[in-house]
Amino acid sequence: MLALIAFLLYRSRGTGISPALLLAGALTALIGQALRFYTLSWVEDGTSGQDDVLEAKHLNTRGPYARVRNPLYVGNLFICAGLMIAAHDLWAALLGLAFFFGEYFFIIRAEEAFLTGQFGDRYRQYQRDVPRWVPRLTPAYPGRLRDGTLDWRRALKKEHNPFTAWALGLVALSAWEQLARGATFQSLWVHAAIAVALLLFFAAVKTWKRGWLLRA
Known about the structure:
This protein has a single domain (2-215), classed as Four Helix Bundle (Hemerythrin (Met), subunit A) (Up-down Bundle), CATH 1.20.120. It has eight helices and no strands. The radius of gyration is 20 Å and the shape is globular. Helix 2 runs antiparallel to helix 3 (71-87) and helix 3 (71-87) runs parallel beside helix 6 (152-180). The protein is mostly helical. The termini are far apart.
């Protein structure tokens, strides 16, 4: 899928991209990242599955989950849409979004089946009260996900990987467009500086997360 999207983008590079589109794409992706960061700052460990494991010690129904059942996936949708806006290729965008919704069609239904098995009628009522994709204007359930304050350290440990990945992708899209329009590698020093800064950020958070600095 990535190879096919890359081919479509290759055909349309050099056709021109306005700074407004690039900025709009970046802001859209940042909105999605902010939603993911905020959600993961409140979610407790053991209530959200990653990799190939589904787990739920208890059901998350408050905070962002009181407005939409899948706030993390809504965040992913904004990130994906932001990259597609910056890529400014209609066919690539349609293909990418079709793959996105096709993938999550199966992911969400697997998770919903798992949660129904875990929580039964309580989860069925939650499904009736809270939409799957389009957030409610008012929360279905008042209150926070948990007691205490927002845990930004937990969110940073969880989100430095995806943030670095999509941000580097945005930089690469911009640089690719400039090269297709006749720019030289030497003129892309701003792109290179941003990429290096992102990689340094990633390395610093990864070092902090693993505790390597403390052990040293």
